[in-house]
Protein 1
Amino acid sequence: MHHIASVPSYLEAVGAAVRDHRERLGWSRRELAAHSGVSERFLAQLETGDGNISLRRFADVARALGTSPSALLGPADAPAEVRPIALLGVRGAGKSSVGAALARRLGVAFVELDQRIEQTAGLPLGEVFALDGEAYYRRLEREVLTQLLANPPPMVLATGGSIVNDPTNYALLRARCRTIWLSARPEDHWNRVVAQGDQRPMAENPHAFAELRALLAARDKLYARADHTIDTTGLRVPQVAAAIAERVR
């Protein structure tokens, strides 16, 4: 039996694709309404996943955006075994190392979403946030995700830790990928980052560990919406990769 994305998640993903195409054209909803003949109010509902649009009106929207209904709908109903695997988790979860090992094990490509965002922006992530703010980063994240997942080959995708905080981008990811949360205790996350030679968590911030615990607590329920959760406590990278491969088989 093929795995089908839940209806709300799928509609949110389609809405995200519509909004991404509109914003890449530099149009407001009012301008898209004028070009498509679909009301601005209904476009707002469509972009947030609340619109129950007819096929004819949806085709009008796609045509106005210079694309097709099939491109906007994307592969959310693709068989589970060919859908990309997306790894979730905060910094220190092991998304990069596990993702690379898993991709080698499965014989597929490995992609780091934040690297693609940096390539699109032409700037390191730190400068993206410093110069343009989080809203711009989220727009880039949605644009890169939409392009990556429009007609994706089998791949393993390591996501940014905060993607779960953006409902639209997280819905797009969940609709079109098999999502895996790499779960661990706060101590594990901390120790992994420090073991990599990164002292930034402790630099000039004596409350960094408490903040990490609070961050994990705040995101736990969001990460738990992933298709699968892998407890990585006490496991080495090859063991985690093997556990994921077994889970998604």
Protein 2
Amino acid sequence: MATRPAGGLEGKAAIVSGGGTGIGWACAAALVADGAAVTICGRTEATLQDGVARLEKVADLGGQASYAVADVTDEASVVAAVAAAATLTGDLDIVVANAGGGGGLGPIHTQDLAEFTRVLHLNVLGTMLLAKHSLPLLVKSGGSFTAISSIAGHQTHRWFGAYPVAKAGVEELVRNAADEYGPAGVRVNAVRPGFTATELMALVPRDSPVFASYLENTPLDGVGEPEDVGHLVRFLAGDEARWITGQIIDVDGGHSLRRGPDYSLFAGVSDDEPRFGLSGPAT
């Protein structure tokens, strides 16, 4: 019987923020399956416990899974989670900054300041804090940092409020970190998922014009799976990607070639009312 080849990540420790579900869990699963010792972190312990139980079922090449309860917008919490991840092997080799999310839909002039700020903090500050406290360890190990962005980070997504702004900020943080830490042997990249079949995106009705707008703007004519993102993140984390840094890579079925989705229905906005009830210039 032929022996299965090694996964290539044996002996490496990783942390994945927002790793209990969706894209984060798929990234953790791809790393665990190839032998890494992975710590997932998030705010809800029950979700993390379930995530670890499912990860243990795919850890067939010697990988292992653990969790740390953490809020990525709280610096002390991030420090503790990074330290916990590094205890598994004594080093930290792989970081996946996945925790993030959007907020209220609507035109910019309707955006609530507190909600706009919350989304910026969750995405940009959360990624920055994870980078701040993991990069010194990645310098020691010559490791890899990958952030999960979105096609919204460079393609207009009308009515999405702070989310596109936040993801664009994440991408510029990645580029600068890649430039700053490249001489130390650390690679920093980002991945831009398109529509991906996660628990959150399941809220978009499949018979709605919103869902139809995704399909008509996706050349491969379908919806991505979390595993599609996980496979790319696994590649970027390994030695196979040793000469790749500072890159923002789309994994979206080609959606970025066209235009963003139409969420007018959810935002309560009609293209028949381009002024949104506001008065135009006097004539």
Protein 3
Amino acid sequence: MLARFSKLWFSVSLVVLASAGFAALSWKYVWLYVTRRTDPPPPVADLLHDPRTSSNPEVLLEEANRLAWLFNWPKAGPLYARAEELFRGKGNTRNEIYACVGTIRVQSETMSWVDVSNVLGRQLELPFAKTELKLRLWCLAAKGYTDLEINPASAKRAWTEAQTIAHRLGEAQWEARAEGELGIIAFLGGNSRRAAVMVGDAVLSAKASGDVGGQVRMLEMLGNGFN
């Protein structure tokens, strides 16, 4: 009788926990949808050739980030390079590093992944990248994307720290992206069940928050054989 009661209690507990988990996740997606934000379009079509914007590094960096968020690195590259140059001239070291990391990430199209990873690793050791959390998150994400191609263990370390920082900063979209990348790494490590849960949550979170780039990234990985 006691054993039967214990089994019944265990079953009920599982149902309650599953229901609570589903409710929590549902509320999470609702909250992401309600608080979603969209980046404004650039003030002009060609920022680099407009005198009002070509010398404004903040505007250039904002548009470069918007393009990079959509993984449009070819168009983001020249904007990062120009913004880096302007920030250097102003003595704005923090934003110079930020733009530099974007430029380095663009160079992954022409440099070896190992070289890009090494350069990004050096950026992470800079004093600003150790203390300024948004900058560190950006550096970690760039390194995480790069290292996935050559060193999943290093990519896991980068994305785990990035996820922690994103949660601390309330950066929901970055947190979801980090979860998705960690899911891909779990799949590469043979943990398909955990990978499916993490990537599934990342896709739904990206959909709810309006993160088009995040959706494209995860669906691209699915199309490349992550199944």
Protein 4
Amino acid sequence: MELSAGKGIESFMDNLQSVVLGGGCFWCLEAVFDRMQGVTSVESGYMGGHVDNPTYRQVCNGDTGHVEVVRVRFDPGKVSYREILDVFFSIHDPTTLNRQGNDMGTQYRSVIFYASEDQHREAKQTIDELNASRAWPDPVVTSLEPAGKFFVAEDYHQEYFANNASQPYCQFVVAPKVKKFQQKFAEKMKA
């Protein structure tokens, strides 16, 4: 990346946008978005609950109201918010309420925590289009909620798939989602 004179890293960073997404286990979402062009960082964490600094154990127990999420930072000059949403909706089942595969509970619900009214409007339009096209047999139940405080998950959750690819959960749950992304969105893969 080359920055012109007078435009420092701060100006570049100001152009980034972020969105927080929940679609089941955060390891799956992180592994996919890490591979997407235009995405500058992905952090696993928690949002939407009523406890400050929740732990993974607390969130898994379903007592805090938090969702396992990823915060995706992206360069809108390289990838659009709509493209982020298209990938999001293709790598999880947005029609199951409070469930993704064997993961059950509100902590695994499908949710978009929007950062602006523009993001809210575009996410709602995307859901309306998916329902109108009957992309799935059942309607999309993804909730749209204003972004709240984001709590970064414990260090061992960051880059989990990259660091634990041979672990059975990663092989049987995460890897197929990564493969689906690579097949369906090959042109959006990082080089």
